[in-house]
Amino acid sequence: VLTGGGRPAGAPPKGFWVAPTVFTGVTPNMKIWKEEIFGPVLSCMTFKTEEQALALANDSWAGLGSAVLSADQSRRERIARGLKSGIVWINCSQ
Predict the structure, then answer these.
(1) Structural contact between residues 76 and 48, judged by C-beta atoms closer than 8 angstroms
(2) What pTM was computed for the model?
C-alpha cells in the first residue's frame, strides 16, 4: 500500500468505508489486479511496451471501463482501439 487504506477518519459508524488507497508492486496474478474493486482504490503496475500494456489491461473478465491518458494523439487512439472494454475514455476518466 503506497497510501491510504483503512477506515477514513470521520466516517459514519455504520457501513463499509475505505479511505482512498493506492497499491503498488502489483503483479498480474494478484486478486486486486484481476478483480474490479468498487471503491476509491487504484492498483498500479508498470509496463515496458504498448503491447504489454494492452495485454495487461485486457487480461480481465469484466472490462467495464478504461481510460487512456496521453499527449500523443496517435498513441492514445491506437491504445483505445486495442482495449477490450465496455467504454473507453480518452484523456479523462469519465
Answers:
(1) no
(2) 0.75
Please choose, from the candidates 94, 18, 86, 24, the residue with its C-alpha nearest in 3D space to the C-alpha of residue 57: 86
Please tell me the distance from the alpha carbon of residue 10 to that of residue 62, in angstroms, as a whole number.
33
**In this structure, is the dihedral angle defined by the CA atoms of residues 38, 22, 31 and 92, taken in order, positive or negative?**
positive
Helices (H), 1-94: 31-34, 50-58, 73-82
How far apart are the C-alpha atoms of 56 and 32, rounded to whole Å? 13
Contacts 24+ apart (CB under 8 A), 87-94: 89/65, 92/67, 93/67
Contact 59, 53 (CB under 8 A): no
**pLDDT (tens digit per residue) in 11-57:** 999 998 999 999 999 999 999 988 878 889 999 999 999 999 999 99
Side chain identity at 2, as an amino acid letter?
A: L
Are 76 and 91 spatial neighbours (Cβ–Cβ below 8 Å)? yes
